[in-house]
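Q: Hi! First time doing this. I have a protein sequence and I read that you can turn it into a structure. Is that right? Here it is:
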Amino acid sequence: MVELRIPALYPILEPPEIISLQATVGSEADQWLDKPYLVEIEHRLETMWTEDKAAAGEGSGVIWRWWEWIGSGECLYDLGLLKDDVLRYAPPASFCQLADRCRLRPVGDTPMSTFYTALKTYNASQMQSDFEKTAFSCGICLEDRKGKSCIQMPGCGCVLYVPLPSPSRDVCLTESCLPCLSACWTLAVTEGSLENVFCPSVVCTKERATKDRKADNADKGVTPSLVESVVGKTLRERWERIKENRIIETGE
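A: Yes, that's right. Below is the predicted 3D structure, encoded as structure tokens:
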């Protein structure tokens, strides 16, 4: 993670100022790259702007180049840490513990796919943790609710106060918006109106009202698992059969 400050004279006369540069797994104390590597990365980032200024007589925008160099993993190749898609670096204990939780077993020469999977898994768990701790305005009832009692609709990203059944959730389902969503989707699937199995938030409902329903992607990325959790297995199977039949009929 790179934190920057953009000075007033950037990019012509001054480069972006690097406030902090971290390669963390978990807390800020769990760095998977040692400090000398981070110092070298910072030096090479600053050099990119300096070289441009020396060549052209003035600086140029380098933030996108920085992003590409770090985000693509090219920096690992340039530092000699990555060769033939294998990370030739012994990860610290914090990364090994994370990989163990992911049922991965990193060694000194860690395949990039293994390393990437562990970081991606951790990132997903952190995003879910942040979501559960954050308060959102429900797209149906407009009440503020914690994310742990909500779902985020795939596709549109709307948050609904729909606490799906879970042993870890102590919430009254009848006081949530789950019965409303369930009744809406149950009727839609029963009648074969797949265009009505969509996000019922105020925002999405208004958006659909101004569009041609046939042209609109009605389900907005609604998944089979989400449909089953709301209306049950039987209706989920009917929903899938109708979708398959429509694809065959329309050829789409």
